[in-house]
Amino acid sequence: MNQVRVRIAPSPTGEDLHIGNVYTALINYIFAKKHKGMFIVRIEDTDRERIVEYSEKRILESLNWLGLNYNEGPDIGGSYGPYRQSDRLKYYQEYAQNLIEKRHAYYCFCSPQRLDEMRKKQQLERKPTLYDGFCKKYSLEEAREKAKKEKYVIRLNVPDEGVTEFNDLIRGKITFENKLIDDQILLKSDGFPTYHLAVVIDDNLMKISHVIRAEDWISSTPKHVLLYKYFEWKLPIYVHGPLLRNPDRSKLSKRKNPVWVSWYKEQGFLPEAILNYLALMGWSMPEEKELFSLEEMIQNFQLEDIKPVGPAFDIKKLEWLNGEYIRKSQISNLKSQIYKFINGKYPEDLIGKTIPLIQERIKKLSDYLPLCEFIFEEPQKYEIDLSSKKDVMFAIFDALQKLGEWKAELIGISMQEVAKKLGMKNSEFFMLLRVAMTGKKISPPLNESMEILGKEEAVQRIFQWVK
Ligand code: GLU
Questions:
Q1: Any known ligand binding at 254?
Q2: For site-directed labelling of 1, which of 191, 310, 406, 438 has its Cα 20 to 30 A away?
Q3: 9 lines ligand 1 (CB under 6 A)
């Protein structure tokens, strides 16, 4: 195999990197690593109306956050740049002219009104809405003259007959009838290329060996195949992976599932867990192993093994997997992840002390603060009104005061004694103590939490009910 060079080509038209694009990026990345190839990011920003200003920056940040490091890209450069299509306009113009000369493309001067009428008529006649070739009648000289004065686009000259075929590595041969392929606009009247022209030129100039993308690009591929043929370029190997889908099989969409990487980050999903989960969307490890690292995936991965249809995207399963990753984390690692996640709001060493208490209990980093905030701040609310429990509080206060060594075990023994002395049921007594310390009826293990709080703070939390 020649050098493997693969790419993702996100369009900066959304909030951030789409989780579906993360899936595509992951397969490209793994495949590149497996074959010691290059993984490239190209920004496809030719659809000027849909551009979202900060999108490119976030897309690149998200790729880095996920650890899908790329070898060439708009921010780091490379030998085949620029890697942003709006910086490559000269290529598209030049190659469009090349097609015009070979009559594989032609100028089209049709007005929006004419195109609209044409489409309406086609719809009425229940025909496919394709450009009718009206402007093919001009000779090249006539068209060039007209183009000096009138607005124009450049269209692909698709043969009326025959078929266009390509081989997809995981789907086999896919055939399209030429009469159903539109004379696609290649260059728009603003001088910008459409996706179809730009993607083919760039993939060729950037020496992309395998085009690995989602299945919704299959219907565009025959246009690309024709372009490769007209340019007399070697076709890349095509792989159209499965789309991520909602449980009802519709394409994963904002309305039914969160789609932006930023959401997953804010929720405290770990990059490793996200990638591990996505890997399962169309591929499986030997023996259906569910938890595995990128390294293991690289070792076992074969492009051919990707299934054309994946399971539905299931956020509950991702949560479960994320919890598994949290449990597997080293304490020091989890500590610093939580510290970063809460933007350094509370001291890192104190967070470290709480980890053994909560590591088994949280599924996402965002579960941490609701469970542990009482360690850092006095509770704002108490789930039981303790003002009528003065006697109990006083007995606790007294016993805690007298404790010499402040250790979870000793705190526990002393509190058992207090409960006994008061003749209270353990469950009832410890519920009051728990609420006094944490504000909540459910909390991490109490004695250990009190040890972390420290004697002074714990006594103070009781004392306020005695005053
Ligand atoms: N710009 C396209 C996208 O936004 C790229 C499709 C392709 O990979 O060819 O997904």
A1: yes
A2: 310
A3: yes
User: Is there a contact between 151 and 108 (Cβ–Cβ < 8 Å)?
Assistant: no
The rounded percent of the chain whose pLDDT value lies above 90 is 95
Ligand 1 center to 46 CA (angstroms): 11
Domain 88-241 has CATH 2.70.210.12: no
Residue 10 CA to ligand 1 center (angstroms) comes to 6
Within 125-249, where are the H helices?
140-149, 195-205, 221-231
Find residue 166's DSSP bridge partners.
Answer: 174
* Structural contact between residues 252 and 317, judged by C-beta atoms closer than 8 angstroms: no
Q: Residue 255: what pLDDT?
A: 73
Is the beta carbon of 11 within 6 A of some atom in ligand 1? yes
- The residues that are catalytic are 254
Query: Which stretches in the chain have pLDDT values below 70?
Result: 1
Name the DSSP class of 197: H
DSSP label at residue 12 = S
Nearest CA to ligand 1 atom 10: 10
Q: Output the CA 43–ligand 1 centroid distance in Å.
A: 9
- In the Cβ-directed half-sphere of 74, how many Cα atoms lie within 13 Å? 22
Secondary structure in 3-state letters for 342-411: CCCCCCHHHHHHHHHHHCCCCCCHHHHHHHHHHHHCCCCCCCCCCCCCHHHHHHHHHHHHHCCCCCHHHH
96-116, pLDDT tens digit by residue? 999 999 999 999 999 999 999
CATH 3.40.630.30 fits 390-466, yes or no: no
pLDDT of residue 1: 65
Strands in 237-241's sheet, in edge-to-edge order, are 38-41, 5-8, 210-214, 237-241, 163-168, 172-177
pLDDT tens, 402-455? 999 999 999 999 999 999 999 999 999 999 999 999 999 999 999 999 999 999
Inter-residue contact 98 to 231 (CB < 8 Å): yes
The residue contributing the CA closest to ligand 1 atom 6 is 9
